[in-house]
Amino acid sequence: MTRVLVVDDSPQILATLRLNLRARRYQVQVAPDGKDALTGAAEWHPDLVILDLGLPDMDGVDVIRGLRGWSAVPIIVLSGRAGSGDKVDALDAGADDYVTKPFGVDELLARIRAITRRVPAGEDLPTVDVGRHSVDLNGKIVHGPGGTRVHLTPTEWGLLEILVRNPGKLISQRRLLTEVWSPNHLSETNYLRVYLASLRRKLEDDPSRPRHFITEPGMGYRFEP
Amino acid sequence: MTRVLVVDDSPQILATLRLNLRARRYQVQVAPDGKDALTGAAEWHPDLVILDLGLPDMDGVDVIRGLRGWSAVPIIVLSGRAGSGDKVDALDAGADDYVTKPFGVDELLARIRAITRRVPAGEDLPTVDVGRHSVDLNGKIVHGPGGTRVHLTPTEWGLLEILVRNPGKLISQRRLLTEVWSPNHLSETNYLRVYLASLRRKLEDDPSRPRHFITEPGMGYRFEP
DNA sequence: GCGGGCCGTCAGGGAGGCGTCAAGATTCCA
DNA sequence: TGGAATCTTGACGCCTCCCTGACGGCCCGC
Questions:
Q1: All domains of chain B, ordered by start, with CATH?
Q2: Under-50 pLDDT residues of chain B
Q3: CA dist list (Å): A63 to A35, A57, B36
Q4: What pTM, to 2 d.p., does this model score?
Q5: In A, which residues are within 8 Å of B218 by CB distance?
Q6: Whether B218 and A110 lie within 8 Å, measured CB to CB
Q7: Binding-face residues of A in 10-69 toward B, CB within 8 A
Q8: 3-state class (DSSP) for residue B145
Q9: β-sheet with A220-223: strand ranges across
Q10: List of chain B residues whose C-beta atoms are within 8 Å of the C-beta of residue A160
Q11: pLDDT tens digits for range A51-69
């Protein structure tokens, strides 16, 4: 089932879209501002984002850039501004479509179908740079300098994905253990030490002085792009 | 270089678009009606089609259907009609975007960038080389060195196609089992072992040391060109 | 200065995944 | 109806990866 994240500060539009999308068997989650949109997308991994440009807390184009930093999820922009410059800015920042308000729900639904048809839902992870290595989360490939390749084990990929999808953010030991292992492994913090060491050995230029996989003692780990 | 086919019966629009696109280093070909559009697309294999719905000889939506019958090329529709029904029809017939006239050239160019960004231009692979063998996916034929032929079973073709269409990318066991067998066979990973062995025996130079069909333990398989 | 957490490192053992082979079971076509 | 091609199933040995425990370094408070 296609997962749609709707970002808008107007409760009416939110309610209308949620109703219409749910009736068409989409899975819907909503966010009222840019901050919630970014965290929601990082945690929920939607197949499509519908984004109003006029958000209370941040510029819509910055939200697009924030998403595009780590995700290739399709983005449909809603906006009251019909100016050519606004459209060009949003599209060039990484939006896939631009619909001006007021819009017909039928048209929006058709555009949603057009976009999800092209992207079979699920190919939303681009490549991320980690120092001199480039990490392709989609193809599960790590390229090193000079055409070399680095091999990662499933557990290493699990850790790497969570960290890289939340650049700059502190990820608690609790969350890493829960998502990579299980909620029963919350006390096994030594697993993290072993596998973080392994990731650093494979991806950091100087594993003993990590620059991208940072330890926050007592709390967790952080990925610095 | 991205190849764009522009379909419109108005000489002015044709000239304007050709000028602007050529200036942005697109390769442009034009067609004045639906018949020329279909034959032109079949012979020239454009990476993008810009299609005016108001053509003299046939309905624009039929042109879309005609293209979609055999090609997945992105289509941007131009139309003077702003009605919601027209948009829905065109998009559901297979168009990727819908721009109403009069339109700004800047906006159209931004939409072109947005669409071609997603599809990296030219990604059908009729024949693929696997070591000393060449695989014709359309004709379902494998040629070996020296004019020999290799026979593959339907299941082998199923596996081979998914792997070869995603060169370099890791394909999960889950996806292979789902698409070649069914979602009920997710636990039968032994099938994969048997048929991967079979593919290697038929296509690899040294089946015991595979160079093109790589196992990623615990995750899936990968085709290396 | 000293001790206790917390973290990084290393290497061995065990379990599960993988490749291989061959023998049924099933389907397909003549 | 018979035979051939294809798919399924099971057994066995190998190899990878995960877990585990021990040790040392660093930082902090006492």
A1: 3-116 (3.40.50.2300), 127-223 (1.10.10.10)
A2: 121-122
A3: 8, 10, 42
A4: 0.82
A5: 153-154
A6: no
A7: none
A8: helix
A9: A170-172, A220-223, A213-216
A10: none
A11: 999 999 999 999 999 999 8
